[in-house]
Write a structure and sequence with these properties.
heterodimer; A: four-stranded antiparallel sheet; globular; B: 113 residues; five-stranded antiparallel sheet
Chain lengths: 117, 113
């Protein structure tokens, strides 16, 4: 079974703090994604990575950066947290269609609910 | 216009009912389509892929209409355990390669005893 874990389920930070959200997957997947989910807006892609040290901007990268130093780990960084970054953050991984039953399934972690005060 | 649009609901139905959700997408070049299910306070999980010919998985049937750019999900004989949010998802990667997904806002289903 694919397992995607995230470092925290709940996090409360102050405006201006630097915030690290960690994601680890155990299936040797090349591709990893960070989304945020907000009511009425659905999941929106922040950044993704298709290989170690590679990263691409998603739809809403402003205010965020990422790091992929090891294949299994993908970190999302909020350089200076702001109240409009209060959200649910979801990490996902995908393995280039190796699972023939569901070649495009992205596997999600349990999410981190971040509150910035 | 949103890339993937869904009626947010909620759809309140009694057990045993048949319920259908629709979703529209704006990018006619989209190659592959999915329904994900998200339980309250949980992560999304793939429910089923959607094929042009239509596909069925037990009580669930998915249909794709490329000409009208909409996707549907039909649930027959609803169970209490079907209560969840259903996310319509479109793969926007060029020529279907890769896996860049666009998610709809979700349709909430509540099945009542």
């Amino acid at each position: 079974d694919v397992k995607v874990t995230q470092s925290s389920r709940y996090l409360v930070k102050r405006t201006g703090e630097k915030v690290f959200l960690e994601c680890v997957q155990d299936m040797d997947h090349e591709n990893m994604f960070w989304y945020r989910q907000d009511p009425g807006l659905g999941l929106r892609l922040i950044y993704f990575s298709y290989d170690v040290k590679m990263k691409e901007k998603g739809d809403i990268p402003e205010g965020y950066s990422v790091s992929r130093e090891k294949k299994e780990r993908f970190s999302l960084i909020l350089e200076s947290a702001s109240t409009n970054q209060t959200s649910m953050y979801l990490c996902a991984s995908w393995g280039s269609g190796r699972d023939l039953r569901a070649p495009y399934e992205q596997y999600f972690g349990p999410g981190t609910r971040l509150t910035v005060t | 216009r949103k890339e993937v649009e869904q009626d947010p609901g909620p759809f309140n139905v009694p057990e045993g009912a048949t319920v259908a959700f629709n979703c529209t997408y704006s990018n006619s070049a989209s190659q592959s389509f999915f329904w994900y299910r998200q339980d309250c306070r949980k992560e999304p999980k793939l429910l089923m892929s959607v094929y042009s010919s239509g596909n069925e998985d037990g009580r669930f049937t998915a249909q794709l209409n490329r000409a009208s750019q909409y996707i549907s999900l039909l649930i027959r004989d609803s169970k209490l355990s079907d209560s969840a949010t259903y996310l319509c998802v479109v793969n926007r990667s060029p020529r279907g390669a890769g896996n860049m997904l666009t998610f709809g806002g979700g349709t909430r289903l509540m099945v009542k005893p």
